Amino acid sequence: MPAHDAATTDVLAQGEITVEMRMPYSSNATFLVKVSADNLSVRAIYKPLRGERPLWDFAPGLHRREVAAYRLAVAMGFDFVPVTLLRDGPMGEGSLQLLVDADFEQHYFTLFESREHLHDRFREIALFDILANNTDRKSGHVLVDHADHVWAIDHGLCFAADFKLRTVIWEFGGEEITDAMLEPVRRVASGLPLDVSSLLDDDEVVAFSERAAWLLENRVFPVDPSGRRYPWPLV
C-alpha cells in the first residue's frame, strides 16, 4: 500500500491502536503500534505527550510539532514526511506517524556518498529544515525505502522562535537556491496555513515568516562557520 494512499490515512485517522513494543534508544516514550480498521492494518510510530521528558528550550507538546512538520511539508508540496496525525491513543493524545518500510542500514551519510541522484531530494530536506528550524536532523532521520524514495522523520524539535538549526546536512552550504527550489518557500512565505500555525505559538509563527523572507532574499543555503551546528549523536 503506498505511503500516502488515502486508505492508509483513513486507517491512521480512525483505526484502533494496539501497542506492539516500545522503541529502543528513544529519549522520549515512543511506541511501535498497529492501527486497524475495516480489515486493513498499518504500522505506525506513536509518540504520546505523556511520554515526553521535560526540555528547557521546548514546551511540552513535541507531538504537535511532529504534526505541524507533516502539514508544512504537505503545504510546500513535499512528500518526504510520512503521514502524521494527532490521535488519542492508549497513553492519551500523541502523534501517529506511518512507519516507513525503509532500509535501516542506510542513512544520510551513506546515501549522500552512494546515491548522487538523491542529492536534490537532500537539498529539499535541507531547505525544509531551515524553514522548520529543525534542531535535530540526525543522519538516521533520513531514510530510503525499497522503491528508492527518501523520507525524513523525527520533527519534534522544530519551529522554535530562536534560530538554532542543527543538522548533518551542510554539504550544500553557500550554494545558490534555484528559482524552482524556492517555489515551495513562496507557497508559505505570506503566511503559514492555519492547520500549521494553530499548533505553534505566535512568536514561532512570526519567526517562521522571517526565515522564509530570509531565504527568498538571500537565495543561498546557509553555512556553519562555527562547526557546531550538528546534533548529537550524529546518527
Which helices and strands, and how do they pair?
Blueprint: H1 6-14, E1 16-22, E2 31-37, E3 40-48, H2 62-76, E4 84-89, E5 92-98, H3 108-114, H4 119-132, E6 142-144, E7 150-152, H5 179-189, H6 194-197, H7 202-218
Antiparallel strand pairs: 1-2, 2-3, 3-5, 4-5, 6-7
Helix pairs in contact: 5-7
Total E-strand runs: 7
Please indicate the percent range of residues in DSSP E strands (runs of 2 or more): 15-25%
- The rounded distance between the terminal residues' Cα atoms is 29 Å
Percent helix? 25-40%
**Please, how many helices?**
7
Uncertain ranges? none
Strand arrangement across the biggest beta sheet:
1-2-3-5-4
If you average the pLDDT, what whole number results?
96
Radius of gyration: 17 Å
The largest pleated sheet is described as: 5 strands, antiparallel
Name the overall outline.
Answer: globular
Structural class category: alpha+beta
Succession of helices and strands:
HEEEHEEHHEEHHH
Explain the overall architecture.
The chain has helices at residues 6-14, 62-76, 108-114, 119-132, 179-189, 194-197, 202-218; strands at 16-22, 31-37, 40-48, 84-89, 92-98, 142-144, 150-152. It is globular, with a radius of gyration of 17 Å. The protein has seven helices and seven strands; from the N terminus they run αβββαββααββααα. The strands form two sheets. A five-stranded antiparallel β-sheet has the order 1-2-3-5-4. It has a two-stranded antiparallel sheet with strand order 6-7.
